[in-house]
Amino acid sequence: MAVYVWKNAFRAVDHQWDGNLFATAGAQVDIWDHNRSQPVNSFSWGNDTSISVRFNPGEPDILATSASDRSITIYDLRMSSAARKIIMRTRTNSVAWNPMEPMNFTAANEDCNCYSYDARKLSEAKCVHKDHVSSVMDIDYSPTGREFVTGSYDRTVRIFQYNGGHSREIYHTKRMQRVFCVKFSCDASYVISGSDDTNLRLWKAKASEQMGVLLPRERKNHEYLEAVKNRYKHLPEIKRIVRHGHLPRAIYKAANLRREITEAERRKEDRKRAHSAPGSMPKQALRKKRIIQEVE
């Protein structure tokens, strides 16, 4: 229907949830109208390339981008410049807004973690989502806003609760290679992943969910069993069974190594703090540690 040509390469694109504008990320962030052959507006903060862009589902004029200079920037189309910006210690590969809580977004980072932020307070993350053992390449929220899916360079797809520190589900196959893009289906029942082995894969959002039509008695039985699990999920035996899962040997060893490194760093900091003057080395939470500065 239309071809849009511009002087810079496009790295990412996203459309407004309600409106006729779409944004492209590249050497700068360009805002396009369907009926124009030239951008109606352009934003840039620094000289680095923008690698992802996402519009806010609740505020059509707000969008978030991540750039190769390790920054996450929030733009407002009603302003002539960027609204806010944070610089992290490692690069953010993708961002996704929570569709049910439009003030919150989650960033997929190179340091194997995802960070959930409140756009009104970027000085610290609301939650840190761990479990990947390599860079997180893409992220997407479920339409319900209660969970999100991530794809990683470690050849796995994981599903996290929006406020959970560890993944609920993990998907992997022997043939699947590095995962570069993931998406939730519109009914929140399936997850689609794309990897560099040239394949698209369709996964169930709940691995144990029964496919097909359920009889009323079957549905009631599933609901009862789920309620029992939720009631006793705090017990160590139930928690161990729920979290149990098989991992590829390489990922299992990498996770153990990462755990040992993290524990060694924590012990080193504790010993430094014990032999330093009181108050000279305050403890810093991981939610703040990965942020270098916030710019307004």
From TrEMBL:
GO BP annotations listed: maturation of SSU-rRNA from tricistronic rRNA transcript (SSU-rRNA, 5.8S rRNA, LSU-rRNA)
Localisation: Nucleus, Nucleolus
A single cellular component GO annotation: small-subunit processome
WD repeat feature ranges: 129-170, 172-213
SUPFAM superfamilies per the UniProt record, alphabetical: Quinoprotein alcohol dehydrogenase-like (SSF50998)
Family the entry assigns: Belongs to the WD repeat DCAF13/WDSOF1 family.
Cross-referenced PANTHER family: DDB1- AND CUL4-ASSOCIATED FACTOR 13, U3 SMALL NUCLEOLAR RNA U3 SNORNA ASSOCIATED PROTEIN
UniProt name for this protein: Sof1-like protein domain-containing protein
